[in-house]
Amino acid sequence: MSDHLSFPRQHARTQRFTLGAPRSLTVSPDGERVAFLRSGSGTDRANRLWVLDVPEREGGAAERLVADPGALLDGAREELTAEERARRERSREGSAGIVAYAVDGAVRTAAFALSGRLFTADLTADTAGGASREGSRVRELPVAAPVIDPRPSPDGRHVAYVSGGALRVVAADGSGDRVVAGPDDGEAHVTWGLAEFVAAEEMDRSRGYWWSPDGDRLLAARVDDSPVRRWWIADPANPRDAPAEVAYPAAGTPNAEVTLTVCGLDGSRTEVTWDRERHPYLARAHWSAGGPPLLLVQSRDQRDQAYLTVDVTTGRTAVAHTEQDPVWLELSTGVPAWTPDGRMVRIEDREDARVLVVGEEAVTDARLHVRAVLDVAADGVLFTASAGRDAQDPGVGEIHVHHAGAAGVTRLTSGAGTHAAVRGGPSTVVSGTAPDRPGAQVRVLRGEAGVPSALREVARVASYAERPVLTARPMLTRAGERGIPAAVLLPSGYREGDGPLPVLMDPYGGPHGQRVVASHDAHLTSQWFAEQGFAVVVADGRGTPGTSPEWEKAVAGDFAGVTLDDQVHALRALAASYPLDLERVAIRGWSYGGYLAALAVLRRPDVFHAAVSGAPVTDWRLYDTHYTERYLGDPATAPEVYAANSLTDPAGWARGGPVRPLMVVHGLADDNVVAAHTLRLSSALLAAGRPHQVLPLSGVTHMTPQEQVAENLLLLQVDFLKRALSVA
Predict the structure, then answer these.
(1) What is the CATH number of the domain that holds 145?
(2) Pick from 209, 200, 245: which is nearest to 93 by CA?
(3) How many whole angstroms separate alpha carbon 455 and alpha carbon 448?
């Protein structure tokens, strides 16, 4: 490599331009403080804990460094346990230092783990110049190690954490460290207070315990993964190392058994009961002052779910609401929750609209497609939404923050972009991206609580993220009669009349993966490929989020047919308006996108002429229960569905026609899409006499956080694609 800072190198060393950007923002209930994480520069992986003191008016904001991991560890290298590495893999966390923190109810105290050690930090400051209330801002508590997921009680008097499979509690002064709930002797596969694999990987539930509002009890999950089948992931590059044992619940096989117990700090234990045979999945749990503990539990086929309230004295549950769907029920972020006056907040699909429901009233309609609930307060609900099917302004790839209150629904963000927010009292912190501006702006707004239209900017949270060496120029549009959201990117030097360009389709194309967003940095890699001489097309066909429930659920039972057909539809429709050479079309992708890329050249070689397939799912029987069964059903009762969507069955390949160049890339340490997927595909291709390339990545997981790997992987892909399509 040369000394020139190329985009692939910058993209790798900045972890996709995320390093140095503020993240994990929390606002205190009085609106006076904003806690957040941020590393020291655009190439520094170690996050620090910061606080911004919110001013009454613009110009008086001050940021304070609260906790620096380098100083706390005395310069020692951070050490991670296998459990912590697994948690970070589930959350796709590639940075270091303080990667997560939790706060008490007043946002006065934060707790976090470093190298398995427990630290607490005072987030307040006096008025004389930033000293903490008690002198030393950060202290280490002497507790059992290694520490996972520490969380202060709402009253700040205790900190709970997980260590050695047990849920433990220690007083805020470091005294009285003890086990609240832990595995008994002989329960080697039991943990307390942690989320099981499918909850963390597929349900977006990363935690396994919840404090009571008054801080005297915990609702704790007990996970027994002894029924789950064991897989063994070896490192072929180091044959002396023993394979890692992984409890992996593949489609059609047993899941972990998850139960709940109310654990009192006084030693009391009350088991929570519900119909686990009907609803084995614990998808959500919520405990606030607005009501009793609230659970969302699902049937295994995810077509039936119940919202349950918990009697913490007896452990009995009562059904507050039920939902059924003939296809599946989607899980949403931030719900269920209680309003302070005891109404349940949820997100529900009604007549092909995803709506916000407060109590029994739908407060949105088909003009909005609700994405997530951000905050629930006395004055209303803060949430994000895309344009719904009846929207008057259906901006492509836009996500906006809205407030639903007594005055109705008010949109708080404007302009093309994607936005999110957190709030506390009179302060709302809005993070927003735009398609024509690198990075995200984080603005601190202040105003009268309950009057969102009166918010005014008083400060900004600084970002240290690097500015990309290239500028993305996504042209956001909708393709064809289906209105497929799409982005088209051309080389910066392209001029009208230069003639058609070889095409690179660059999709994810499947559930939970929206690629077409009104955000500059999201399209940087696609723009870099365009600069190599391609017209790059990113298309979010049916199955991807952000359009409508019907759009998402169109892939039920048919990944292969629907998602591939929409890529073809978008390609041909866009060729009428953009300079696309349909005689030279390649496709690349990772994970589901890798599946789609390999699928394209195997089933439609008449359309696609080359593919790079990264970490593809090739045999859906090898993927996990919660994801796979939601879309394809039980392999025991629908084997034909799994066969029809498999890449390893030659019966699904195009008969006759050309054999197109295919490069398959896979990390050998991947515990999500295991390398067996690529090996089975390669064996099937070899048996059929079909040439292909396999690039194994030793020591690489489903992420590719290693700088050299990430950089060179981009260069190898573009070299392969140029050769395959004869691009000069």
Answers:
(1) 2.140.10.30
(2) 200
(3) 7
Q: Is the pTM of this model over 0.90?
A: yes
Q: Is residue 454 part of a domain?
A: no
Residue 129 has pLDDT above 70, yes or no: no
**Of 149, 165, 181, which residue is a domain's last?**
181
Beta strands in 591-657 (DSSP E): 610-614
R_g of the chain computed on alpha carbons = 25
Structure tokens at 427: 């302060």
> Cα(83)–Cα(125) distance, rounded to whole angstroms?
35
Whole-angstrom distance, CA of residue 136 vs CA of residue 121? 9
Q: Specify if 277 maps to a domain.
A: no
Report d(CA 700, CA 670) in Å as an integer.
7
Q: How many domains does the chain have?
A: 2
Q: How far, in Å, CA of 714 to CA of 720, rounded?
A: 10
**pLDDT (tens digit per residue) in 71-123:** 999 888 888 888 888 888 888 888 889 999 999 999 999 999 999 999 999 99
Average pLDDT, the chain: 94
Print the domain residue range for 81: 20-181
End-to-end CA distance of the chain: 21
Tell me which residue of 161, 153, 178 sits closest to 100, measured CA to CA: 161
pLDDT at 528 over 80: yes
Closest-CA residue to 284 (of 309, 264, 263): 309
Reduced to 3 states (helix: H, G, I; strand: E, B; else coil), residue 62 is strand
Tokens 């901006």 belong to which residue?
395
Q: Examine residue 366 and state whether it is found in any structural domain, yes or no.
A: no
* Residue 162 in tokens: 């997980």
Q: What is the model's pLDDT at position 91?
A: 82
Show which of 154, 181, 208 is a domain's final residue.
181
- Burial of residue 241 (CB within 10 Å: 0-12, 13-18, 19+) is exposed
Q: Cβ of 524: how many Cβ atoms within 10 Å?
A: 23
Q: Collect all residues with Cβ–Cβ distance below 8 Å to 129 and sequence separation of at least 6.
A: none
Closest residue by Cα to residue 632 from 326, 279, 301: 301
Q: Phi and psi (nearest 5°) for 548?
A: -170, 160
Structure tokens at 273: 């009961």
Helix crossing, 559-574 with 592-603: angle to 10°? 80
Total Cβ atoms within 10 A of residue 271: 11
In this prediction, residue 130 has a pLDDT band, given cuts at 50, 70 and 90, of very low
- What is the Cα–Cα distance from 148 to 91, expressed in whole angstroms? 14
SS (H, E, C) 72-88: HCCCCCCCCCHHHHHHH
| pLDDT band, very low/low/confident/very high, at 450 (cuts 50, 70, 90) | low
Q: How confident is the model at residue 126 (pLDDT cuts 50, 70, 90)?
A: low
At 352, list the tokens. Answer: 């092909």
- In CATH, what number is assigned to the domain containing residue 543? 3.40.50.1820
Q: Is residue 576 part of a domain?
A: yes
Residue reference for tokens 């399509």: 725
Taking only the tens place, the pLDDT of each residue in 201-253 is 999 999 999 999 999 999 999 999 999 999 999 999 999 999 999 999 999 99
Which secondary-structure segment (H or E) carries 686? helix 676-687
Tokens of 59: 């110009």
Q: Is beta strand 610-614 parallel, antiparallel or unpaired with respect to 662-667?
A: parallel
